[in-house]
Amino acid sequence: MSKKIRMGRLFNYNSDKTFLLPIDHGITLGPIKGINSYCDTVKLAASGGVDAVIAHKGTIKKLIEENIYGSYSYIMHLSASTALAPYSEKKVLVTQVEEALTYGVDGISIHVNLGGEDEAQMLKDFGYVSNECEKWGIPLLAMMYAKGAENDPNTTSHLIKVAQEMGADIVKISYNGDLANLEDCISNTGIHTVLAGGNYSNNVKELLTRIDQAITYGFSGVAIGRNIFQSNHIQQLAKMISSILNSEETLEACLKKVEELGNDYF
């Protein structure tokens, strides 16, 4: 029952869609633009309609200390590695579900890279975290990646299936191909699937069009990080994304606004 209540906080009540803001990049990439001033970033994005923020415990602790919380939720990310390591794709658990609960978060997030020599350990960690989430009644978001999956619908579908079989409630995938190719998999597995925003692109029209297509083909929402927190106008862009996800404005209306303001505005 508690998981159902927490899941309800992660999704928009009317549309049953979710708009996630991952700001967990600091451990991997260091102090990149946008997460240096993460308190301001979260305030602006949340006021634009973000449903949940994904972050590591130190960031969530600071945000709570600064009284930055409200109608949106926090999801604590348990996995980490740095770009400084020779095997940066090996993610390890750096905290536990039980500790995350002491922060009052509504969700847990882990990162799993498949297809490498460390796959077995990451699957083992996935199973452990999934069991703990069931035990404590807290939703689990699995960020699933594999080399080449971004352009391969079969591999991406496999990632979605793994997340569902392992007991995740939400799966985040990165995919650059035709989203129609994933529609059957999303429908058949029944897991909430969210589309990652990927690297910062500075092409707002393409980003909004992609989000609109994702909803058309059965995605439950998006997880947009760098394309939000590296934007020049975080709040305005977040409002556009939220309005498309929740059917408050059409894609065409949003694209018209982008044209009027100019892509460089964002």
From TrEMBL:
NCBIfam families in alphabetical order: PRK07226.1 (NF005556)
PANTHER family with a match to the protein in the record: 3-HYDROXY-5-PHOSPHONOOXYPENTANE-2,4-DIONE THIOLASE (PTHR47916:SF1), FRUCTOSE-BISPHOSPHATE ALDOLASE CLASS 1 (PTHR47916)
A GO molecular-function descriptor: fructose-bisphosphate aldolase activity
UniProt xrefs under Pfam families: DeoC (PF01791)
Xref: InterPro entries: Aldolase_TIM, DeoC/FbaB/LacD_aldolase, DeoC/FbaB_aldolase, FbaB-like
Gene3D superfamilies cross-referenced by the UniProt entry: Aldolase class I
Active site: 145 (proton donor), 172 (schiff-base intermediate with dihydroxyacetone-p)
Domain of life, source organism: Bacteria
Name of the protein in question: Fructose-bisphosphate aldolase
